[in-house]
Design brief:
Blueprint: H1 2-12, E1 20-31, E2 45-58, E3 63-74, E4 82-93, E5 97-104, E6 137-146, E7 149-156, E8 176-177, E9 183-184, E10 194-203, E11 206-216, E12 221-225, E13 228-233, E14 235-247, E15 250-260, E16 265-277, E17 286-296, E18 308-317, E19 325-333, E20 339-349, E21 353-363, E22 379-387
Parallel strand pairs: 8-13, 9-13
Antiparallel strand pairs: 1-2, 1-22, 2-3, 3-4, 4-5, 5-6, 6-7, 7-10, 10-11, 11-14, 12-13, 14-15, 15-16, 16-17, 17-18, 18-19, 19-20, 20-21, 21-22
Length: 388
């Protein structure tokens, strides 16, 4: 870390090339139509956030320094007010390899509904419940680039604990999660050295990746301690496979994992397709139909909501100057009929502004479903961001 800070400071004063600065400052409002289950939880809520990216290159572009800080100030939940370094990375590239050192975000996966193989970064769950927002992960990443594919090796020396809503926050379980006293299977706790590797390649219309992870599980179990839940982070091994095939108007997707810990081993998968209709209604609008099946071998014993579920979605892309798009979706439990409806839509306003609409509706949630805690937490969220 000291080496990275030295690089950052020297980069600020190095006249080899101009640094690029970009980012956004956003204001967000969440509307909850129903009262919360717990009177301590807030009703409607506002927050502001900022993410800035500073990029500097030198050595004819073969070396790069990226610094991306993030901050959110929340009105109703003190745990949602937080700061993070999404990236602080120095990279050195050559013809057949690339070295990256620092704090980074790495994404693996192809499916729409969930990302089973994506395991490098911890989820910033307090920032957004869909799991797409991630905390920065300290790492050493060495990539070997060959004609037969790219091999990425990762050393992950420090574990990031998941963020959760506080006792005032929504959405959260009925019992408050004790974030100050997490439990670990490893005696090294956050200092455990995790390792990962991934081979990625393409053949014609097919893109695929095969990955391996050994270390601290990013998805915690929970132990009941009085009126609170304590996160428990196990040691796991995971083998993952992601495949995507583009066949004319069809986009076929598969993510599957085999995971094991000291007590259990299981498989899980998400598979489906997206079919696109181009120029519908005799306009430039495209319509994509998304269908995915979510499976977990543990069945009803799985501590997750989606273990035998079907996701159906409609993606509208207007192809206009404002980059307007929307995704309407529903995930239904095929055994209990519990359904989560969602909407995600965005549109640029002028050159620098962007409006984003997001919503969730929890319908007919079964008492045995992990989502039962959120049955009153339907919300509609409007975000207005200034981008530069």
């Amino acid at each position: 870390m000291r080496y990275l800070l030295a690089l950052l400071l020297s980069g600020l004063f190095t006249p080899l090339s101009a640094a690029e600065l970009s980012g956004n400052i956003s204001s967000e409002f969440r509307y909850f139509p129903e009262q919360p289950l717990n009177s301590q939880q807030h009703q409607n809520n506002s927050s502001i956030s900022a993410e800035i990216e500073w990029v500097k290159s030198w050595d004819r572009g073969y070396q790069l320094l990226i610094f991306t800080p993030y901050f959110r100030l929340d009105q109703g939940d003190s745990e949602r007010t937080h700061a993070d370094i999404r990236e602080l990375t120095w990279s050195k590239a050559a013809d057949e390899w690339e070295l990256r050192l620092g704090i980074r975000q790495v994404f693996w996966g192809v499916s729409e509904s969930q990302h089973l193989v994506d395991i490098i970064n911890q989820t910033d769950l307090v920032d957004d419940i869909d799991g797409d927002e991630k905390l920065g992960q300290p790492m050493l990443n060495l990539a070997f680039i060959r004609d037969w594919g790219t091999v990425d090796l990762f050393l992950l020396p420090y574990f990031r604990e998941r963020t959760f809503a506080g006792h005032e926050g929504r959405l959260r379980p009925a019992l408050v999660i004790d974030q100050e006293n997490p439990l670990y299977e490893s005696s090294q706790k956050q200092q455990h050295l995790d390792i990962a590797l991934r081979w990625s390649h393409y053949l014609g219309d097919w893109d695929f990746g095969l990955s391996y992870f050994n270390g601290t599980n990013r998805d915690p179990d929970f132990v009941i301690n009085g009126s609170q839940l304590q996160p428990y982070y196990r040691q796991i091994e995971q083998i993952g496979l992601d495949i995507q095939a583009t066949k004319e108007s069809w986009l076929w997707k598969l993510e599957t994992i085999h995971r094991r810990n000291r007590d259990i081993q299981y498989a899980a998968a998400t598979a489906g397709f997206e079919y696109s209709f181009y120029g519908i209604f005799e306009r430039s609008t495209d319509l994509g139909v998304v269908v995915e099946y979510l499976y977990d071998e543990r069945g009803d014993n799985a501590p997750i909501a989606f273990q035998n579920d079907l996701m159906i979605g409609l993606r509208f892309t207007l192809n206009d100057e404002q980059s307007s798009e929307a995704l309407l979706g529903a995930i239904t439990d095929l055994e209990s009929s519990s359904t989560v409806y969602s909407i995600e839509a965005s549109r640029r306003l002028g050159d620098n502004w962007k409006a984003t609409l997001e919503g969730r509706l929890f319908h007919d949630i079964s008492p045995t479903d992990p989502l039962f805690h959120y049955r009153r937490d339907h919300f509609l969220q409007l975000r207005l961001g200034y981008y530069f």
